[in-house]
Amino acid sequence: MRAIVLGLCTAMVLLVRVADAQMPLPAAKPPDGATLFKQQCAVCHTLNLSEPIRQGPPLVKVVGRPAGKAEGFKYSEALSKADFAWDEARLDAWLTNPQALIPGVTMLYRQAKPETRAAIIAYLKEQN
Fold first, then answer.
1. How far apart are CA 53 and CA 44, in angstroms?
2. Over the stretch 47-93, which tens digit does the pLDDT of each residue have?
3. I need a labelling partner for 86 at 20 to 30 A (CA). Which of 6, 35, 65, 75 fits?
4. Cα(75)–Cα(104) distance, rounded to whole angstroms?
5. Who's near 101: CB < 8 A, 6+ residues apart?
6. Residue 15 pLDDT > 80, yes or no?
7. Which residues contact 37 (CB under 8 A, 6 or more apart)?
8. What is the distance between the alpha carbons of residues 42 and 34, in angstroms, rounded to a whole number?
9. What is the CATH number of domain 29-126?
10. Nearest of 75, 115, 119 to residue 98 by alpha carbon
């Protein structure tokens, strides 16, 4: 009798495990742009012109701003010679690989995930 009960219990546990394996887990909501900015960008950049300048320039109103031209920040020679304004495509290329966009820049951060770059860029656009 005990063997039958143990067998039934084992069968029920296996059935539950199979059912769990077949049920998709709810997708985790990815972090929003504000959270990603705080986690990945805010160490070096501010969004407030009244805060002290950090290692990188303030990024408030960066979309549409000429590259290498934020007042009060000393840019690398390579970036100070850039001849374009920041738009979504250039920000995406920059976050993917800054040195590929402008050889000789000092920013080391790279973001391989397109969805993360898109969320950060969308958040920066909101700061204009």
1. 9
2. 998 999 999 999 999 999 999 999 889 999 999 999 999 999 999 99
3. 35
4. 11
5. 90, 93, 94
6. no
7. 47, 120, 123, 124
8. 10
9. 1.10.760.10
10. 75
DSSP of 29-78, one letter per residue?
A: PPPPHHHHHHHHTTTT--S-TTSPP-SS---TT-TTSBTT--TT----HH
From the number of C-beta atoms within 10 Å of its C-beta (0-12, 13-18, 19+), residue 12 rates as exposed
Residues in the chain: 128
Amino acid (1-letter code) at residue 87 = D
**Between these two residues, 19 and 99, which has the higher pLDDT value?**
99
For 52, half-sphere exposure in the C-beta direction (CA atoms, 13 angstrom radius) is 3
List the chain domain ranges.
Answer: 29-126
